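Narrative of activities, Objective 1.

The group set out to show that a structural description can be obtained from nothing but a protein's sequence at a throughput compatible with the screening campaign. Below is one input-output pair from the validation batch, recorded exactly as produced.
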Amino acid sequence: MTAFSRGAARAGRLVRDILLAAAAVGGAVCLVFALLAFTGGYSLMMFKTGSMSPTIPAGSVALVQRIPASEIAVGDVVTVDRAGTLPITHRVTSVGEGSDAAERVITMRGDANAVDDPMPYTLTEARIVRGSVPYLAPVIAQFGNPWVLGSLTLATAFLVGWAFWPRRPRTDEAVPPPPDPA
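Output recorded for this entry:
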């Protein structure tokens, strides 16, 4: 084996190891998010508008957690489901008692808005924003594209096949010739 081919083999192993490590980290992140969703009521929310700018600009992704309305406080950023339309995420400006112990009536306002939302929201639960990452929504949205999903599937299959394909044993020494039968 020449020095060039040994170097190429080492480089190939390094690339393979880096790609496998990246895939393992990605898989671990997916498992953590699945566990959080299952056990803690967490989910991801993508922001299309800038009503919460500059705190949460358009194109951000937020980690939200479902909580009872009794835990909502003034200043929290919460997502409220609305019948017949998309949910809304704004900052809570007031919290009042509802018709029973579990219900709250809240008013909200987007950080970029000058006035509160036109109507108060009566609810028993909401999703509170635990954190956000700006400009990540377009990247995540691409994972819904069939071409992107297909390409990732093929790339993953290739990587797994490449990583576990049988290899010839490495020999660093010259193999002696077989004995002469004569």
